[in-house]
Design goal:
The structure holds three protein chains of three kinds. By secondary structure, chain B is of the alpha/beta class. Chain B has four domains: about 35 residues, no CATH class; about 240 residues, Rossmann fold (3-Layer(aba) Sandwich), CATH 3.40.50; about 160 residues, 3-Layer(aba) Sandwich (Dimethylsulfoxide Reductase, domain 2); about 120 residues, Barwin-like endoglucanases (Beta Barrel). Chain B is built from 21 helices and 27 strands. The longest helix of chain C has about 35 residues. In chain C, about 70% of the residues lie in helices and about 0% in strands. The chains are: A alpha+beta, B alpha/beta, C mainly alpha. Chains A and B meet through helix 1, strand 2 and helix 4 of A and strand 3, helix 3, helix 7, helix 9 and helix 20 of B.
C-alpha cells in the first residue's frame, strides 16, 4: 500500500531468543502497563488475556539433548494487507500509516472475532469475561490506558499510551519528532536480558533496523507475505529450521505413522 | 366522533412512521452506543497528580531498587533503577507487580482467628487486643517453648525478638528451615564466624559450580546474579551446573552435569575424594584443620570407580569437574535450597561446604569471602536444633524466604495443644495453619529493612520506604510482640521498626565506610560526603542504598571439622533406597504461594503454558509412555504418605523416571491445593524432603 | 377459535394434539432461551470457544443453515425468474424454511457477538473491504425480503382472508413477487458467496485461503453453487419429512424429482469446480504460503478421509445419483442422495470453520480440539425448536402446500413402494403419535 504520509515511521522489534530466559517480566510488565486484568478462576491458556504470550518451544529432542527457547508472541504489526484490518466489519482496527502500528479500538469492536480467525499469529484475545480487579487494584490502573469491557477483542499495540506521552513531550518541547528514549514499550523496558530491541525500522541507522537485516534474524510465516514488523534473532540452527517449518508436528500420538 | 379499530391502527401506523422523523430512535441508538462503549462494569480510571517515588522491593532477599509511578500517591507501575551499581537495574516478573500486593484478594483485613478444627475451620473476626491477650495468657500457662519463627533473621528486628525470647522462661528465637544462607552458615560454623560475615564474591569469581539451584530460571535470579551471569564472557566466568533437569540454567551453563536425581551427595563426596587422593594442593589444610584426617578417611571409599555408575556420569567427567575447580583462579561451589524441593540433605550441604574449603576458595577473593564487619545480631537457634513436640506457642514473623516449607515440618515441633500466631498480612501456606492472625502491613505500606543478599561480598543496607498509606487494621510485628510482652509484664525496650532502622543507619553513618547510591540523583558518593546520620536516614527513605567497602586480600581461617556430618557409603545407600519413580517437588522462587504474588502473574502460569499450575506432574515423555499416561490427563500420585490428584504434562527437559510436581501457584481464586504435594513427601530428620519414592497411575 | 383459523377444506389434528406436539419444542425453546440469557447476561465465557477457536458451533451452524435455507432464494429464482411452475407447490415451504433459517442464523449471531448492542455499528462504520460487512448487509436486507415473501403466506390464513384489504394486498404482493425474488436472488448470491469468502480471504489461514477472482476468492462462487444445490435438496427432504409426520401427501412426486434434478445439476457443477479448486489449492495456493497441503491432513482426527468424504462420498456420488433419471425414479435413492448432498455441504461448512481453526499456523502451535458447551448446544436447539414451532404454526393456520387440497386422499403417500425408508421412518415417527390426521 503506497501512502502519501511524508514523515513516516515504522516501529518494530527484534527479539533475541538466545538471550531470553523465559523469566516472564515482559508479560507481566505488559499486563500492568496496559491494564490487562488478572485471570479469573476459570480462565486458562486458551481463554486468558496475554497480549504478550511467552511460549516455550523445544527442539523436539528428548532429555538430555533437549533445548528450549522462549518465544514472546504478540501482535506482529503486519504491514502488508494486514489480515485483521481487512476483515473487521466495522473499522474497529486501525493501521496507522504514520507509525505502522495496528491498533484495536475496543469501543467500536462488536466482538465478532473474525479478526481472531484471520490472525495467523494468534495474537488477538477476546474478553470472554468482564474484567475484574479488587477495589484497591482499580485505584492502581494505569491512567493512560482505557480498560476494555467484556465481549471485545484486544491485543498489543506497542504501548500506544507511551507513544502518546512521548509525542506530548516532544510537542511541549516544540519538536514534531519524538525522542526514542521517551518511547519504550513496557516489555522492552522490563526485559532484564535486554533481549528486545525496539525502534524505527525506517531509520537505517537505528539498532533495530540494523539487527533486522542480520542474517541470524528471521520472522514467522513470512510466506504469507503480511510483512510483520517483529523480528526474531537466534544463532541456533534448530530455531531457524523450526521457524521455517510450515506447521508443527505436535506429539507423535496425534499423527499417522 | 366514534373511534374505530381502524383509527387506532392508523394512529399506530402513523406514529411508527412519524417516529423516524423524531430524535427518539437516533437518540436511542446514540445512547446504546455510549452505553456499550462506557460499559458499566469497566472501572473508571484513576485521575490525579502523577508522581514518582523511589523505594526497594522487599519481596525477596535480593532487595532490588524500584521506581514507582504513582497517581494520587498510589503506585500504578514499578520499574527497576537502571543505574543501581549492584543490581542489573531490572525487576523480576513478581517484583514488577509487587505494588498490587497491598490490594491482594488474599489479604487478611484485620485481626482474625480460626474457629473449628483443621480442614473445616472457618475464619472469624477478632480484635488485636483479644488475640494479644489470648497469646499472652497461653505463654503464661504453658510449659513448652514459646518460639518466634523468623525467615529473615538478618534484620534488625532480630534484636526485638531476641530480647523478647530471652525475657521469657522458655523463649526461643529460631530461624526457619530452608534458608538461602545455609551453606554460608555451615562454612561459618567450620571456620568459626557467623554466616552474615561471609558472602559469595560472585563479582570476582571465575567459576561457579552450582548444585541444583536454577540461577537463571524464572523468578529465581536475584538481579545481581543475573547481571553477572549475563556478562559471563566479559568477566571470564564459567558456570558449571549440576542438575537432573535440562532447565534454562542447565541449557545456558558452560558445562551441564546431568547426574541422576538425588545423587548430589555422592558426586560431592567423590569430588572431595578426587581432590584429596588424586590431586595435589590440599596440603595447606593439614595444619589448619582439626579432624581433617577423619574426613580424609571417610571420603576414601567414595572413589570415582565406585560411585560413577550411581551418579550416572563418567569418571572422567568427575575428574574434569574437579580439575576445572582446581585450575580456576577462583571458584564458588554453591548449593542453595530449591523453592519446591527444599534444602539439600545436611550431609550434602556439609560436603559442598567442604568442597569450598578444600579447594581453597574460602577467604579468597572470588570465592567465599569475609565481609567487613558490621554489628548484627542473629537468631538464638537453628530450626533443626529444636526437639519435636516442644513448642507450645509459635509466633511466625511475616517475612518470607521465597522457598516453600512443608507445614509438616513445623507441625512436628509443635505440642498437641499449641497455639500458632501469624503476623502475615496474607492468607498463605503458613497463616492458613495458624490459630490467630495478626496481619502486619503489606509490602510498600510500611518501612521494611533490606539486608545484604547472600551473593554479595560486601554488606549493604537500604530500606523499603513506604509508598502507600498504611491500613489501620494492620499491626507491626514489633508492636505486636511489645504488646504481648506488656501483657506478660515484661520490661521491654519496645522499639518500633523505624527506630531500629534509624539506629542501624546511625551505626553505619558512624562507620564512615562505603558509598551511598542515590537513585533520585543517580549518583554514587562516599559516605564521608553525608553530613549527619539524619541526612543518611533521609536519603535512605528516598531509595538510597549504602554499599560497604570490600575486604581486600586473603583471609585465613582455622577450620574445625569436628562437627561435620557426613555419611559413609553404606549409610548413604541405606538412606537412598530409591525405587523406580522419584517424586521431586518443584517451584520457582517466590511463587510458592498465590498470596506472595500479584494475581496478575496469572499471565505466566494460568493464562500461558510458560509455568505449570500447582499439582501438575511433569515427566519425561518416555516415562509417560512406559506408564501409558498421556499429557493433559489426570492421574493419581501415590507415596507412602498419601495420594493426590495431579495433572500430567510431558516435558522432555525432565530426567526419565522423575516426577516433578509443581507446588504452586494455583489458579487465581482457588488456593485449596497449594503446596499439597509437600504433604505427601517424605520429611527427613534434617528437615529435607527432596526425593520421595512414588507411584503414578491413571485416575 | 382454533378451528376458525384452520384453512378451509384442510384437515388438521385436534388442538389438544397440536399443543402436545408443540410441548417438547416449547420446552426446548425455554432451555435454549435460558442458555441465551446466560450468554448475553454473563458473557461468552458460557461457551467453550476460546481465543484460538474464536468461532465454534454457532458460526458453523450459521453457515450450514444459511446454506440449507438457500432453497428459498433458489426456488424463488427458478419459479419467478425462470418460470419453472412445477415449483409453485413448494415455494411457500421454501420461503418459510428460508425465513426460519435466516432469522435463526441472525438471532444466533446476535448471541455470538460479544457486544450485540453494537451490531448496528457495521452499518454506521462499515468496512467495505470486509466480507463480513457484505454478509451483514445482504443478510439483513434478505431477511427483510423473506419477511415480505412470508406475508402472503400469513395472509392465506382463513381469518385474515376475510379482510378485503388484505386480499388486495396479497394479490398486489403476488404481482410483485418476481421483483422480490429477483432482489432475493441478487442478495442471496452475494451473502452466500460472502459467507464463502469469509474464509477464502483469510490469508493468515492457509488451510482456508483460496485464489481470488477479482475481489472474490473461489470459495465465494463455490458457496453460492453449493448452497443452491443443498437448498433444493433440503426443501425436498423437509417436504418429505412433513409428509411423513402428517401422513399426508402434500406435493406431487414429480416435484421431488424436479427438485432432485436441479439440485443434482447444481451439485455436479459445484463438485466439479470444487475438485478443480482443491487441486489448485493443493498444488499452488497452499504451497506458495509455505504449507504443503497434506500437512493439514497429518492429524488423525482430520485425515485425508475428510477430503475424500466431502468431495467423493458426499459430493460426486449424490451428484451422479441425482442427475441420473433412473436413480431419481426411485424415491428411496432420491431422498438418500438429497440427504447425502446436504451432508456434503454441511461437511464442507464444518471443514471451512472448525477444521480451519483447529489447524495451527505457527510452527510451534498445537493442534487444538473443541467441543461445544451445553449453552452453545441449547442455544442452537433453540433455533431448531423455533423453526419447528414457526413451521408448525404456519402449516396449521395457513396453506404451505397449495397442492394439499387436490391431493388429499385416504392413501397417505403414493410412491412409497420401497419398504426400507418407510420402515425406518415409521419406526422413527411412531414415537410422534400425537400428530394424526383426523
Amino acid at each position: 500500500m503506497e501512502t502519501t504520509v511524508e514523515k513516516k515511521s515504522r516501529y518494530g522489534m527484534v527479539i533475541n531468543l538466545d538471550r531470553c530466559n523465559g523469566c516472564g517480566a515482559c508479560a507481566v510488565a505488559c499486563a500492568v502497563e496496559n491494564n490487562v486484568p488478572p485471570a479469573l478462576t476459570a480462565m486458562n491458556s486458551r481463554t486468558g488475556l496475554t497480549w504478550l504470550n511467552l511460549i516455550p518451544v523445544s527442539n523436539n529432542e528428548n532429555y538430555p539433548d533437549n533445548e528450549t527457547v522462549y518465544i514472546p508472541m504478540f501482535c506482529q504489526q503486519c504491514e502488508n494487507d494486514t489480515p485483521c484490518v481487512k476483515v473487521c466489519p466495522q473499522n474497529a482496527i486501525e493501521f496507522d500509516e504514520a507509525t505502522g502500528i495496528v491498533s484495536q479500538i475496543p469501543q467500536r469492536c462488536l466482538g465478532c472475532r473474525y479478526c481472531m480467525a484471520a490472525c495467523p499469529y494468534h495474537a488477538r484475545y477476546f474478553n470472554w469475561w468482564d474484567p475484574e480487579w479488587t477495589d484497591g487494584m482499580k485505584q492502581q490502573l494505569n491512567p493512560a490506558v482505557s480498560p476494555r469491557m467484556r465481549g471485545v477483542v484486544e491485543k498489543c499495540n506497542f504501548c500506544h499510551g507511551r507513544l502518546h506521552a512521548a509525542r506530548e513531550k516532544a510537542a511541549a518541547n516544540g519538536s514534531s519528532e519524538i525522542d526514542m528514549n521517551d518511547y519504550v514499550p513496557a516489555c522492552v523496558e522490563a526485559c532484564p536480558e535486554k533481549a528486545i530491541v525496539f525502534g524505527d525500522l525506517n531509520d537505517p541507522d537505528s539498532e533495530v533496523s540494523k539487527l533486522s537485516r542480520d542474517t541470524n534474524t528471521f520472522q514467522f510465516l513470512t510466506r504469507l507475505d503480511t510483512k510483520p514488523k517483529v523480528y526474531f534473532y537466534s544463532q541456533k540452527n534448530w530455531v531457524h529450521t523450526m521457524a521455517e517449518r510450515a506447521m508443527t508436528r505436535t506429539g507423535k500420538e496425534e499423527l499417522y505413522g | 366522533m366514534k373511534i374505530t379499530r381502524r383509527d387506532i391502527l392508523k394512529l399506530t401506523g402513523g406514529s411508527l412512521v412519524g417516529m423516524f422523523f423524531t430524535p427518539l430512535p437516533w437518540k436511542l441508538l446514540d445512547d446504546s452506543s455510549i452505553w456499550t462503549q462506557n460499559w458499566w462494569l469497566t472501572p473508571p480510571l484513576p485521575r490525579g497528580t502523577i508522581s514518582s517515588k523511589f523505594s526497594h522491593c522487599a519481596l525477596c532477599p535480593a532487595g532490588c531498587s524500584v521506581q514507582a509511578k504513582c497517581v494520587n500517591n498510589i503506585p500504578f507501575g514499578l520499574t527497576g533503577v537502571k543505574d543501581n551499581p549492584i543490581h542489573n537495574g531490572y525487576l523480576c516478573a513478581q517484583g514488577l507487580a509487587g505494588h498490587h500486593l497491598p490490594n491482594h484478594p488474599l489479604r487478611i483485613e484485620g485481626a482474625k482467628k480460626f474457629s473449628g478444627k483443621h480442614e473445616t475451620a472457618i475464619l472469624i473476626n477478632s480484635s488485636q487486643e483479644e488475640i494479644i491477650a489470648a497469646v499472652a495468657e497461653r505463654i503464661k500457662n504453658s510449659k513448652g517453648i514459646t518460639a518466634i519463627l523468623n525467615q529473615n533473621p538478618d534484620r534488625e528486628n532480630t534484636r526485638i525478638y531476641n530480647e523478647f525470647s530471652k525475657a521469657l522462661a522458655n523463649g526461643l528465637h529460631i530461624s526457619s528451615p530452608s534458608q538461602e544462607n545455609e551453606l554460608l552458615s555451615i562454612i561459618g560454623a567450620m571456620c568459626g564466624v557467623p554466616s552474615y560475615d561471609l558472602g559469595f564474591d560472585v563479582e570476582h569469581t571465575n567459576l561457579i559450580v552450582n548444585f541444583g539451584t536454577n540461577l537463571i530460571d524464572g523468578f529465581g535470579a536475584p538481579g545481581r546474579m543475573q547481571k553477572i551471569l549475563s556478562e559471563r564472557k566479559a568477566r571470564n566466568l564459567k558456570l558449571i551446573h549440576i542438575e537432573p533437569k535440562k532447565s534454562h540454567t542447565a541449557q545456558s551453563a558452560d558445562i551441564w552435569i546431568h547426574l541422576n536425581a538425588g545423587r548430589e551427595y555422592l558426586l560431592a563426596m567423590t569430588m572431595i575424594n578426587v581432590m584429596l587422593y588424586e590431586t595435589a594442593g590440599t596440603q595447606h589444610l593439614y595444619g589448619l584443620a582439626q579432624d581433617f584426617e577423619k574426613i580424609k578417611k571417610l571420603v576414601k571409599e567414595f572413589s570415582p570407580a565406585r560411585t560413577a555408575k550411581y551418579i550416572g556420569i563418567s569418571e572422567t567427567e568427575i575428574r574434569n569437574l574437579v580439575s576445572s575447580i582446581s585450575t580456576a583462579h577462583s571458584a564458588i561451589i554453591t548449593a542453595s535450597p530449591d523453592p519446591g524441593a527444599g534444602p539439600f540433605e545436611q550431609e550434602t550441604m556439609h560436603a559442598v561446604a567442604l568442597l569450598n574449603i578444600l579447594s581453597g576458595n574460602v577467604g579468597k577473593p572470588g570465592g567465599i569471602v569475609r565481609r567487613k564487619f558490621v554489628d548484627q545480631q542473629t537468631v538464638v537457634k537453628q530450626w533443626n536444633e529444636i526437639p519435636n513436640n516442644s513448642i507450645s506457642v509459635l509466633i511466625i514473623d511475616p517475612s518470607e524466604t521465597g522457598y516453600a516449607i512443608p507445614w509438616k515440618i513445623i507441625e512436628k515441633k509443635l505440642q498437641k495443644d499449641s497455639v500458632v500466631v501469624s503476623f502475615s498480612p496474607f492468607l498463605n501456606s503458613f497463616s492458613a495453619h495458624a490459630d490467630f492472625l495478626l496481619p502486619s502491613s503489606a509490602p510498600y505500606e510500611a518501612i521494611e529493612e533490606i539486608t545484604t543478599p547472600v551473593d554479595s561480598a560486601v554488606h549493604q543496607f537500604a530500606v523499603a520506604a513506604p509508598i502507600m498509606s498504611e491500613k489501620e487494621f494492620s499491626i507491626e510485628p514489633e508492636e505486636a510482640v511489645a504488646a504481648i510482652a506488656s501483657n506478660l509484664n515484661i520490661r521491654f525496650s519496645a522499639l518500633s521498626k523505624e527506630e531500629l532502622l534509624r539506629d542501624k543507619a546511625k551505626k553505619i553513618y558512624e562507620l564512615r565506610r562505603g558509598n551511598i547510591f542515590n537513585p533520585a540523583e543517580n549518583s554514587l558518593h562516599s559516605i564521608t560526603e553525608i553530613t549527619s546520620a539524619d541526612d543518611l536516614w533521609e536519603k535512605l527513605l528516598h531509595g538510597a542504598v549504602w554499599i560497604d567497602e570490600e575486604q581486600r586480600g586473603k583471609t585465613s581461617f582455622r577450620y574445625n571439622f569436628s562437627k561435620v556430618r557426613l555419611l559413609n557409603f553404606l549409610q548413604y545407600e541405606n538412606n537412598n533406597n530409591v525405587t523406580n519413580l522419584k517424586l521431586i517437588p518443584v517451584g520457582l522462587r517466590g511463587s510458592i504461594s498465590n498470596a506472595s504474588m500479584s494475581p496478575i502473574i496469572s499471565k505466566l502460569y494460568q493464562e500461558a503454558e510458560l509455568r505449570p499450575l500447582s499439582n501438575t506432574v511433569l515427566l519425561n515423555p518416555r516415562t509417560a509412555d512406559g506408564l501409558n499416561i498421556h499429557s493433559n490427563e489426570r492421574a493419581i500420585l501415590e507415596t507412602k504418605n498419601g495420594t493426590m490428584q495431579v495433572l500430567v504434562k510431558t516435558d522432555a527437559t525432565v530426567q526419565p523416571n522423575c516426577l516433578l510436581v509443581s507446588i504452586a501457584p494455583s489458579a487465581n481464586g482457588s488456593t485449596k491445593h497449594e503446596n499439597a504435594v509437600l504433604e505427601i513427601c517424605d520429611i527427613h530428620n534434617d528437615s529435607s524432603w527432596r526425593i520421595t519414592n512414588a507411584i503414578l497411575r491413571k485416575s | 377459535m382454533d378451528k376458525k383459523l384452520i384453512p378451509r377444506g384442510l384437515q388438521r389434528t385436534s388442538f389438544g394434539n397440536f399443543l402436545l406436539w408443540l410441548f417438547p419444542w416449547v420446552a426446548l425453546l425455554s432451555v435454549g432461551l435460558y442458555a441465551i440469557y446466560l450468554c448475553l447476561a454473563e458473557g461468552l465465557n458460557h461457551t467453550n470457544m476460546d481465543n484460538r477457536f474464536a468461532f465454534g458451533l454457532w458460526i458453523y451452524l450459521d453457515l450450514t443453515i444459511i446454506a440449507l435455507g438457500a432453497g428459498a432464494f433458489f426456488t424463488g429464482f427458478l419459479l419467478y425468474i425462470l418460470r419453472r411452475h412445477e415449483l409453485k407447490s413448494v415455494i411457500n415451504s421454501a420461503v418459510v424454511l428460508g425465513l426460519i433459517c435466516y432469522s435463526g442464523a441472525v438471532g444466533i449471531l446476535m448471541v455470538d457477538v460479544g457486544q450485540p448492542l453494537r451490531a448496528w455499528f457495521t452499518f454506521w462504520h462499515p468496512n467495505v473491504h470486509s466480507m463480513l460487512t457484505e454478509v451483514t448487509f445482504c443478510l439483513t436486507c434478505y431477511l427483510i425480503v423473506l419477511l415480505i415473501e412470508y406475508v402472503p403466506i400469513v395472509l392465506k390464513n382463513r381469518k385474515l382472508r376475510q379482510i378485503p384489504k388484505f386480499l388486495v394486498f396479497e394479490f398486489q404482493l403476488h404481482k410483485l413477487m418476481p421483483v422480490f425474488a429477483g432482489i432475493g436472488t441478487f442478495l442471496s448470491f452475494f451473502h452466500q458467496g460472502s459467507l464463502g469468502g469469509l474464509f477464502g480471504v483469510l490469508r493468515g489461514r492457509p488451510f482456508a485461503f483460496r485464489e481470488a477472482f477479482g475481489i472474490w476468492p473461489s470459495t465465494f462462487f463455490l458457496f453460492v453453487l453449493s448452497a443452491a444445490a443443498a437448498g433444493l435438496s433440503f426443501v425436498m427432504l423437509t417436504t418429505w419429512l412433513v409428509q411423513k409426520i402428517t401422513k399426508k401427501q402434500l406435493v406431487k412426486p414429480e416435484v421431488f424429482k424436479f427438485l432432485g434434478k436441479i439440485s443434482g445439476i447444481m451439485l455436479s457443477v459445484y463438485i466439479l469446480l470444487k475438485a478443480i479448486d482443491t487441486l489448485v489449492w493443493i498444488n499452488a495456493t497452499s504451497l506458495s504460503a509455505g504449507f504443503p497441503a497434506f500437512e493439514f491432513y497429518a492429524r488423525k482426527s482430520f485425515g485425508t478421509w475428510i477430503l475424500f468424504t466431502e468431495i467423493v462420498v458426499l459430493g460426486m456420488i449424490p451428484a451422479l445419483l441425482l442427475t441420473s433419471r433412473r436413480m431419481r425414479e426411485r424415491p428411496k435413492i432420491l431422498l438418500l442422495a438429497g440427504l447425502m448432498a446436504c451432508g456434503g455441504i454441511m461437511l464442507n461448512r464444518f471443514v471451512m470453520t472448525i477444521q480451519t481453526l483447529a489447524l495451527p499456523t505457527l510452527p510451534f502451535d498445537a493442534f487444538l480440539s473443541y467441543s461445544p458447551s451445553w449453552e452453545e448446544i441449547a442455544a442452537f436447539l433453540f433455533v431448531v425448536a423455533y423453526g419447528v414451532i414457526l413451521y408448525s404454526l404456519t402449516y396449521r393456520y395457513s396453506v404451505i402446500f397449495p397442492q394439499e387440497r387436490e391431493l388429499q386422499s385416504p392413501v397417505p403417500v403414493q410412491y412409497e413402494t420401497q419398504p426400507f425408508s418407510e420402515r425406518v421412518a415409521e419406526k422413527f415417527f411412531s414415537a410422534l403419535t400425537f400428530f394424526k390426521a383426523k
